[in-house]
Amino acid sequence: MYVRDARNRDEAWLLDHIEAMGLDDTAFRSRDYVIAVDDDSTSKTGFGRFRVHRDDDACELTSIGVLDSWEGNGVGAHIVERLIRNAGIEGYDRVYALSPAHEYLAQFGFEPVDADELPDALQKRLDEKRERHDTVIPMVIDSDGFSMPEELRERFKNAAENVGSESEPTESPEDFGIDSESATYKYDTG
């Protein structure tokens, strides 16, 4: 299992899963994302975004998702780790997250921050997110303050897909606007 930067060809996959998980796709740019990939099957297992707010010189982690069939394997933790590392490389000392999953982020060293202390762009984003979720807590971490619990590092090394969970949606001809009852095909011999 490894985490890599997203590529342009990952855009459709990202958008499909962001929509399916009901995550934030505001100002979508595939190059802002990282993707976790299983070594053995080359299946994409999760993703997350490092979003820069240039006007306020601030960055936030957002749209972090793990496919159901890969939950519990430390995938999300490694995505968060990579995003924070990328933020540090880009020169951001503090990384923000506006998340309903604040307990999850707290295990890595994120701490709650007062909404009044947020940069202006993030205060606006907080208001938007609170319209969609009941509880959204603003969190912050220093880019060098991330701590990976050893248990999650080991789970990631030995990650395996959870059997019985569907990882990719099944597509049918109807998904592409094809009426399978009346369609004829180029090489139809009937």
TrEMBL record:
Q: What is the lineage of its organism?
A: Archaea, Methanobacteriati, Methanobacteriota, Stenosarchaea group, Halobacteria
Identification of the protein by name:
GNAT family N-acetyltransferase
Task: Fetch the Pfam families from UniProt.
Answer: Acetyltransf_1
- Which residue range or ranges hold the N-acetyltransferase domain? 1-127
Q: Which superkingdom?
A: Archaea
The organism is Halosegnis rubeus
Spell out the residue ranges making up region: Disordered. 159-190
Compositional bias segments (type: Acidic residues)? 168-178
Q: Which UniProt keywords apply?
A: Transferase
Q: Which InterPro entries has this protein been placed in? A: Acyl_CoA_acyltransferase, GNAT_dom
Molecular function per GO:
acyltransferase activity, transferring groups other than amino-acyl groups
